[in-house]
Design a protein that fits this description.
CATH topology of the largest domain: MetI-like fold
Helix content: over 70%
CATH class of the largest domain: Mainly Alpha
Number of domains: 2
Order of helices and strands: HHHHHHHHHH
Structural class: mainly alpha
Radius of gyration: 23 Å
CATH architecture of the largest domain: Orthogonal Bundle
Number of strands: 0
CATH superfamily of the largest domain: MetI-like
Distance between the termini: 21 Å
Shape: flat
Amino acid sequence: MKRLLTWLSTVRADLAHAGISAVVILLVLLIWQAITARGFVSPNFIPTPASVWRAFIHVTTEGYQNHTLLFHLGSSMLRMLTGFALACVLAIPLGLGMGTSEKLRAAIAPFIEFYRPLPPLAYYTILILWLGIGNASKIALLFLAAFPPIAINSMAGVQSVSEERIQAAQSLGAKRWQIFRYVIFPSCLPHIFTGMRVSIGFTYTTLVSAEIVAASHGIGWMVWNARRWPQSDVIFMGNIVMGATGILLAWLIKKAEQQVCPWHGKV
């Protein structure tokens, strides 16, 4: 019974938050419609919501530059998720290793800290020289963009584990690998997921930059190419789609976190 009441309380809170978000979004749409309908600004600068919706339907069904919206979005997601997944596979164990080993941290951390603040487009030119203008250079760029937040947060997760918990496990006879498996790693999971949420947003931003420089399809390329005509409705529609998919990706990571470490935030 207590579990049911807790679940109902959570559902009510989620519905309340969703209701507030829906009201705010509706208010923004009404203000947008009022400004554009009265001709306060040129449609070339801010299109009407109706024209953005028509652009969405047209690009979804008829396509943009011979490719549908699903194709453009799918191409972008394939590039981004491939780079992001590779970063997770390598950055998480490396970050955990840097958190547990001072020697490894001293060897690897300076390289991460060196390129982390660099603008992605600054070293993207090098990747193009090495890998060409195809997907290989884009995936490499996205991998490098996604790597630092995940590695740094994984390392911080290890360093945040209290010494008392480790000593308590040692007093119970736990071996070193058992301490890592049952104490350190579970404690790091919230930090790892936080790094993944930060990383996915930065990776998406880098994806658009990569497609602007060298691409013939993709959601970022579509928005950049539409400025040439100019097609403001396609530009607005593309930005809305990118924002919506970014929210969806972050939500999926958050739901995965809730499944993997449901205790986080409750103890």
